[in-house]
Amino acid sequence: MRWGLVGASNIAAAHMIGAFRANGGTIRSVLSGDPDRAKSYAAEHQIEFGHTDLDKMLDDDDLDAVYISTTNDKHFAQAMAAIAAGKHVLCEKPLAMDVTDAVTMVRAAADAGLVFATNHHLRNAGSHLAIRDLVQSGRLGDILSLRIFHAVHLPPHLQGWRIDNPAAGGGVIPDITVHDADTVRFHLGEDPVSVVAMSTGSGMGQGVEDSVMSVWEMRSGAQVMAHESFTHRHAATGVEIHGTKGSIHARGVMTQNPVGEVTLVTEAGAETVPFDQHDLYARAVGLFIDAVAGKGAPAADGRDGIASLAVAKAVAAAAESGRRTDVDYGGF
């Protein structure tokens, strides 16, 4: 597959370029609003073309798909342009600034017969695949609750617009809560119905929230407690899932390298759960390529991206209003 990078981003450099090439792909072009950045990024990563004009980039018959990793406010217009140009789309989360735009993107791709996927990487990790298998196989019994803790210290090279630019989609809710929403949906196989939440600025955010806690009601009646932050230097990440027959305790599994420990606890005692430590980004790209070839579906499709955004928007609204808020999935 021949790819174009819409955004000369850190995540593309650190993870996605390697994942594309690991699947036999080539990278035709990269787009940046800064001409010098486009040129230097293309040279550094052996990319043939560096562009500053999206239309020119998309006017390439040898381009099959685009990976969008710009600031959140740009995703909608860039995805719609790519779809209009007949390109398949792999888009970073959150898909858009609001659910209505996300639904429009996904429906436009479907109408055009194109594959549209959301780059929710965690559901591709061996640790999370093992956790999901335990839940879905019934080892925990009926699920009672889930606790997800994703409070980290955002490193300086990732701060920038995430901590001071609400117009670009900054804040911990659009950045991390969407990840947790997708993880919860992936493991439990259901959507949250309503949420309550509180957010705050705890030392890093400037005009945006940098910490949030929320409680979600699932359709089954299970409860979810979630904690996301940019400011916790020494907090470990993880997931706990508790059922009528057992519990999962997973630590160190909510990072870009989620290869911590997963433990299953039942009446028989505690056991360490083995899992594969493959490249989760390469797996996601491989499934995307298979979907384009008509073999299966992406790891996280457009509906998954809509749902994670809808949960994040409900958390933000509940934190602002102080009231329980229903999750609006935009009719999708």
TrEMBL record:
InterPro entries tied to this protein: Gfo/Idh/MocA-like_OxRdtase_N, Gfo/Idh/MocA_oxidrdct_glycsds, GFO_IDH_MocA-like_dom, NAD(P)-bd_dom_sf
Keyword Signal part of the UniProt annotation: no
Pfam families noted in UniProt: GFO_IDH_MocA (PF01408), GFO_IDH_MocA_C3 (PF22725)
Secreted among keywords: no
Domain GFO/IDH/MocA-like oxidoreductase: 129-248
Domain of life: Bacteria
UniProt-recorded name of the protein: Gfo/Idh/MocA family oxidoreductase
Organism for this UniProt entry: Paracoccus albicereus
